Input
Amino acid sequence: MTEFKSKIKTIEWTGNSSRMVNQTILPEHFEYVEIKTGDEMFEAIKTMIVRGAPAIGVAGAHGVALYAQELEKENLSRDEFVGKLLEKADYMATSRPTAVNLMWAVKKQKDVIINSKSDIKGIVYELKENGIRLENEDIEINKKIGDYGAEVVPKGGTILTHCNAGALATVGYGTALGVVRSAFANDPTVKVFADETRPRQQGARITTLELTMDGIPTTLITDGMCSYFMKKGMIDLVVVGADRIAANGDTANKIGTYTVAIAAKYHNIPFYIAAPLSTIDTSIKTGDEIVIEERSREEVTHINGKIICAPQVNIINPGFDVTPHELIAGIITEKGILRPDYKKSIKQAFN
Ligand code: MRU
Output
């Protein structure tokens, strides 16, 4: 298994609280924030102190454990405790709407609450332990995704990625950037082109930071440039992450991903999704059913606190788009690379 050089652990349970990298101030400042209550966790997810589908899944799980710790102090009967905690868990799952890993991880915690035979103290303990287990599993899963994905990276290849599906979008190692890390470990001539990813610039602020920390040659481009470099033959494949994948393979990821996928198809460049099975939502048939987060106008009107447009201009700011399954060459998971027909290969992966 590939060794992870970068020391980043994006989110970690530290006894009675959750510690996370504050991603809103990267790359200028690298600071950890300690989250001590469930409500603080809800805000940390909503305001994107922690972001990236698998990372907010673990954050949601920690958030439920934090709510449990708080309710433990309220002198409730066991039934009251369980009832209130399940309500808090449902609330936590609404902190962001698109990435299904959040709902998935909260559901895992709800299963612990519902199935536990323990007293209140025991339930709190089990929730903390389950949060830690999800943390550890995430890194293991990403390493598997990375190693499967590395097999499709040609020698000396250049990988284009969009947004940040790296160590900082997960607990560690990353999904799309896990593929990059594993490929680079086998072949140090592999290179990356990173899309800036407006409006929040996760590609510029976060992907370039974590890849250059690992010594991986990385070129930053703005979002409109990808076709230009594809036409010049400078991109060999695209690998991006995912926030939610429907049962037919349609994939929601950061806004702009769909444009990259269309450009890749036109230039005959394979376009891959790298994601854990927890990102696949088999309860929805197609991407049309995915709820797309609407974000604030300021994300578009301002860069680093400075206005960049006429103040009264209309703004629409969807956080994600859905890439139709026809544009996807493969979905790289911890169980291997799923290929079309996705309805069949996704079903098989869950058996
Ligand atoms: O809004 P964000 O920064 O949470 O969006 C992140 C993405 O779209 C990532 O590509 C996706 O979550 C995959 S992370 C492994």
Notes: The chain has a mean pLDDT of 97. The first strand starts at residue 11 and ends at 13. The domain at 143-350 is CATH 3.40.50.10470 (Rossmann fold).
